[in-house]
Each structure stands twice: as structure tokens, then as C-alpha cells.
């Protein structure tokens, strides 16, 4: 019995070693092939660098010189377009890239969109959006409707293509997404939308899924959209604590408010995060109005609120004086120490 | 009357059968993890990772991170390490170097090289630590801070860094390591994109010795000339393919490298930060976080991310490797013991039922069983006992488990990740992987057993490893 096991194991080891040696040969050959392919790609890039500059920057219509002729040309062109896209921000350049990609690369990407390998399909989906190949939108929609099983990651990036090229479908996608979307995904989709489409979504705010609502608030702050301040101020009285904190945070980023009195009740909030945001927002209003509430927040039971209140005061010369007076007057040792530290830190 | 030789034979048979079954269990576990890892790596093989990094950075999805670098007597590597951090592709981050009472020129080098001057900084003491002696800020890189503190160990230094950090995520990085410039965004990706589901992640750590590193930048990758270093390279490949990747994908991670990992700060604070009494503070924190997640009814995960690469200096002498392995094993055992109530406890789900028992049986107690196996094999061959056939069987299993698995790791790594582009380096790795079972593996087993003894005798060896520095001689400052 043991003897048989020894023989089986020895044969197994020999077979494994042989397979591994074959794999070693494969890896070595593959490296040589990759080296050769890289050389061809580099040759194309070197040969056509000036032609591409003429096409994309000088807007000379020299497509005949640069259009892909061999398989590796596609990879080389993808690299060139990717680099221009990454390093130059210009609508004209994006348009030229889109024109070329639609005319000469769409067939290549269409084939890759249907590739059996997940990573190649996903790369192709990325390129459709990167190079604005709108002629492939219908292919992408067909893929989504085909019933074939795609990963959530693929599906999400396909949704980005649809939202980007067919914004009229955005409302439906945001309200009833075909896959589960989190705040991170909604935020990416929202960043693809034009202001008008976003405004329309804002009208439907209450009907949107919660992660989408949070993402929308974040995007308003990121885009520095101060016209939405009234909308945000309505949310600071929302019954959901998370919504209130997020709205306050967005307001603190925008740095503008309509009426300070609307905010003062937050001083008595039982949630320190709200009081912290209030201390941040008070930084943006004249010190005459903010000094009293900030002095009160200096004595808050939460360290972060005291710290932020002191920081908001110390930002202006007048505030610094108020802080120094406060140090003399107060009996609160914690507040006194914090005020002293923040003044030292600001020096 | 019972024949004594028959009793001895029965005992030997029992041991031999036990070792045989154990080896089968280990080989099946490692083999399964290898296949799992390979499937995952092949899936990502052609994926354009740079495009994904770029999107996260450019579209401001990356939330700010505080990178904490604890340093104790790191004068040889610290400048390179900070240089690599200063060139990270990440939109907003601060670097907090914590000098843990170094007795060499670490402090002086940092102060002079980065033109640091004393500053006042207010921070909340959220975790109790040893006193701070001074805080310094670089005049040339305002986001680089240096905290000088009384010596209290790596965990204490990390805790001070957490207290002083401004941002919601922390990254811990060893001072003898450098990061590739895309490493931070890649290791942060699961935390940024998972909508709170991932609370910590660790990157892939590779051996830096032999590479051309200048001013913290990796100029080219090549294999070290030193055999001991190459053996460690093979070990890292094995650990990556037959452990971390598969365990992480099954949400079974108990170890993410202490050399390079990121955490959502609020959770680390909730569990009281790093344990200053633990030898393996990194593994202790991960198990503690897993416990905290399950105790609070959460479903958050800890992930290992294979693509972000941290290059670290591997010890080059037998003495240093021995010290390192002994400490690692002692640290692992200590943490497993500390959280022993989680083992086989269904309350902790798959971590309690699968992961912890795996670490106890395969990783922790494995060295004892393997060494007994080696002794059995040698004893049988030399004494010519009746178990020569059994010894042959065990020997083949050792060869399969040691050398063949190492060879497989080397070749699969070369196929998918291609760390070492030179074909000469590939062949050196293959050749040396074959020798592993005959000398390097037994040595590591003995060192790990020493770790078990140190654990049992409660011997705390805080030994600091001898450093040579990562930079080329001409690039070193």
C-alpha cells in the first residue's frame, strides 16, 4: 500500500515538474513575444509622434498617415490617445480624439466589448467613455439588455456610458438602478451629468435612493454650486441625522449662508457632529455675529467642537483678540487650554 | 508480556501516520489557495490598473490619508523611505514620521535633510501613549511632520501618529520600506470604493535588496546576488500565492502586512489602537478589528490587495533572519492565544470556524509537526528501520510541499506579475526554489520553533534588525 503511494506520488511529482518546466518555456517565449510587440508599438509611436501632434493639436486632417494598419497599431494609438487625454485638458482635443476613435477604432473596441476575457471587455468599456466613442452606445445598451451575465463592475461602467451619451435615461437609472449602487457609484454617475439634468434630479430628491441623495449633496459641494444653498438649508432640519450632517458639511464647504439665525439652534443639538459643522460654518460669517456662539462652542463637552470653534475664531485678527479675552474671562480650564493651544498653533 | 519493540513500532507508526495526514491536509489547503489565487490573478491579467488609479485621483474620489512612519534607529533607510512617500500619486496626504527615541542619527538626519523646525500642534489624545518630546514640521514639505517621543516601541509610535493625524484614514509604513508611486491609491481603492464595507487593507510586500533605488524611486528591479535574500523572495511569493490573496478573497484575512497597510481611523481608535504589549502588533490589530466587527454585528471586511507594492529591506544574515522569524512566529502565537476564545466560535463566523483554526493548525503548530517529520525521515534512513518506505513517502511529500510548491509559486508569479523581468533572474529563482526543502525550510522551521519557546517562556525579544539601507551607495545620503 505504502509502496504504491510512493510510486503514485513520485509519478505525480515528475508530472508536475514536467508541466512546470513546460510552463517555464511558455513564460520565456511569452516574454520574448511581448518584447517584440512592445518594440512594434514603440516604433509606431516614434514614427507617428509628430503626425499625431498635428492631428490633435494643430488640427490637421492627416488621418491617412496615422490610421491603424496592423494589429499592434491599435495598442499604440490607444497609448497615444490615453496620454493626450491625461495630460491635456481641452474640449477641442477631446472632440478630435472622439472623431478619430469613432471613425477608426470603433470596430476594434466593438470586438473587444464582446471578448470572452473579463479584463479586456472592461478595458474596452473604459475606452468607450474615455475616447467618447458614442457610436458604440447602442452596442453597450444591447449588451446590457442581452441577458448575458456581466459583473457588477462591468455593468456599472456600462451605465456610465449610457448616462453620459443618453442623459435622458439618467432619471430612470438614478431612481431604479438595474444593479445595486452605493454612494461612490452614484457620485461618479452624477459627475457625468450636465447642470440641467442634475437640476431635474434635484426636483425628485425625495424619491431618490438614499445613497443617491447623499451623493447629490456631496457633488453640490464639490462643484461649488452656491445656487443650491437654499436647498441645502432646508435639509438641515431634516429628520435624518446623517442627512442633516451631510447638508451642514456641504454648506461648510460652500462657505455661504442665507441667515445665521437659522443655524443657531444647532448649538443645542445632541449630536456633536452637527455642532462641529456649525463651528466650521460660523468661520464664514462676520466675527461680530459669530463670536458669541463660538465662545459658547468653545466650552462644548466634545474636544473636536472646542477645537473647531477656537480655530474658527483664530482665523481673523479680531477673532484672535476675542479668543485672548476669552482666555482671561473663562473659568473653564479645558476651554482655556484649547484656546491657548490654538493661538500657539496659529503663530 | 508486551514486547517493547512492538510498542515503539506502534508509536512510530502513529507518528508517521499523523505526519502523513497532516502533510496531506496542508498540501490540499495550500494547493486550493494557490488555484484560487491564480484564478484571481488571471482574471485581472490584462486590466488597465493605471486607468483606474487615474480616475480615482483625478476625479477627487480619493479621501485624504495620514501616512505614519514609526522609526527607531533607521538612519540608513529613512531618507529614501520619505522620498518615496513624497512622490506618491495621491491627491491629499500628510506624512507623520514618529521617532521612537532613536539612539542613532535618525532624528538629526531628518531635521537637517527636510529642514524641519519645531512647531505647536494641537491634537486629541485618543489613545494613551508615551510622552511627546517635540513636534517638527518641514519647511520644504509642509505636509511632512516629525514627532519626537520617548521610546515606547513600534505600536506606541503608531498610536501617537494616529493621535496626531488629521485625516480619516491612516497608512502605516515601515521606515525601511519604500512605496511605488501608485501604491497608496491602489491599497486605498477598496476602502474608497466599497461604500464603507472595507475598513482595512494591506498591500503586497516585496524584497527590495538588489534593486536600483535612488532618492526613493525604484529605477530598476533585479534579484539580489545573495542566496539568503533570494530564498526570502521565494518565501514572499509563496506567502502571496498560497495564503494572503486567497484568504483575503474569502474574507478570512488575519494578517495584512505591518510594513504597509491602511485603516479607517475611527475603527482603529474604537478598538484602542495598536497594543503596545504585543510583539506582533500588526496581526493583533487585525484580529482585534475582526473581533470588533463581529461583536458589533457589522459586515465590514479586511482585504489584501495584490497590486500596490511596497519594497522592503530583507535581512541578509542568518542571524537577522532568525531573529525576525522568531519574532514573527512568537507574535502570531501570542495574538492567536490572546483571542483564543474566537477559535471554533461560531459567533465569529468564518473567521472563527475556518481562519483561526487554519492559523493554529497550519501556520502556528506546523513547524513542530514538520520538524518531527524531518527527524522521522532522517532517523528511519539512518537506522534502516522498517519505516523506510514510509519515510520515502514523507520525503516526497516534503519535496512536493517545499520545493515543488515554491517552484510553482515562482513560475506563476513570473507568468502573472512579472516582478523580475530578466530571464536569468527567473532561472536563478527556479533553481534555488528546488533547494529550499533541503536547507532553508528546516532552518525556518527551527527558528519558528524558537518563537514557540519564546512564547511559552514569555521571553520578550525586542531586537532591532541590522540595516544596510535601500539606496545605492552613491545615492545614499
Automatic annotation (TrEMBL), chain A:
Residue ranges crossing the lipid bilayer per the database entry: 6-29
Keywords: Membrane, Transmembrane, Transmembrane helix
InterPro entries, per database record: ARM-like (IPR011989), ARM-type_fold (IPR016024)
Keyword flag Transmembrane helix: yes
Statement: the UniProt record of this protein carries the keyword Transmembrane: yes
Gene3D superfamilies from the UniProt entry: Leucine-rich Repeat Variant
UniProt protein name: HEAT repeat-containing protein
UniProtKB/TrEMBL annotation, chain B:
Pfam family membership, one: Glycos_transf_2
Family indicated by similarity: Belongs to the glycosyltransferase 2 family.
Transmembrane intervals: 6-38, 348-378, 390-414, 426-447
Record bears the keyword Transmembrane helix: yes
GO MF assignments: glycosyltransferase activity
Ranges of residues in domain Glycosyltransferase 2-like: 66-207, 233-398
Name of protein: Glycosyltransferase, catalytic subunit of cellulose synthase and poly-beta-1,6-N-acetylglucosamine synthase
Entry keyword set: Glycosyltransferase, Membrane, Transferase, Transmembrane, Transmembrane helix
Protein transport found in the keyword field: no
Annotated organism of origin: Gracilibacillus ureilyticus
